Amino acid sequence: MQANAPADPRDFPSPEAAGLFRAIFEQAAVGGAQIETATGRFLRVNQRYSDIVDYSREELAVLNALGRAVNATLALEETAKAALTGMLDAVHPDLAFLFLREGDWLVLREVLPLAGRLRLGVIPEHRVGKGMCGLAVREGRRLYSRDIFNDRRCAWEECQQAGLKSFAALPLRSGDQIIGVIGLASEAERDFERQAGFLETLAGQVSVVLANARLFEAAQGELAKRQRGSGPGGNPAGQPAPRGSGRNPEIGRALRRPHPPVAGLCPQTNDSAQGARSQ
Question: Which residue segments constitute the domains of the chain, with CATH numbers given?
């Protein structure tokens, strides 16, 4: 059910009308969500909606905000920053990392908050299969540690030297490939695994947009390479460009590729959505 009532109670004809709407909305036997048409932002959802998709109202708001933030750009650096910012807002770790895979190596793309980069110092590239992030990429599964000082999987001295205690490594999957990993760390002992389902959904949402951003970056690089190897006007020997030659099909496909919706975030839903959350 999608509610089209005013967002602000002051916009109702009377306080009684506003109260009646709230009562009906909250007690409805079907899932209901009120969404801002211009932005797709969730204004409110009822308890039935939360029960169907198996996320709290706060988690739905976070997922919605993250989706809008990371879909606002195709630039890889901006997408990486938006993704980590969304993770910080969602689960409030003390530090968040984003590594992207390049062959057998994990290359650091972003660390947030900015003060965290200073705490960690220089972070070298890491091999796939080494440390919790490397193991998460190699095995293709989420890994959690409540105490990295007593966990043999935690081989990165930078995290221990920075005074971090607990860690979560979330692999980023695109199709059958693991394209990177997000690391979440806290100074105090914390059980990140308690939010495993929610973290998996967040990581899945980030994976889609990062895969598109990497495709877009690769297409731009290929286009620039071809232009550098061409004559004046971007054509060999300065000959006139054939019609449509200025278009790059890879960039076009990246721009047109739809982003799959996260389960439970569509404006309309019903009981068939039950079990959409992966455990």
Answer: 2-53 (no CATH), 73-211 (3.30.450.40)
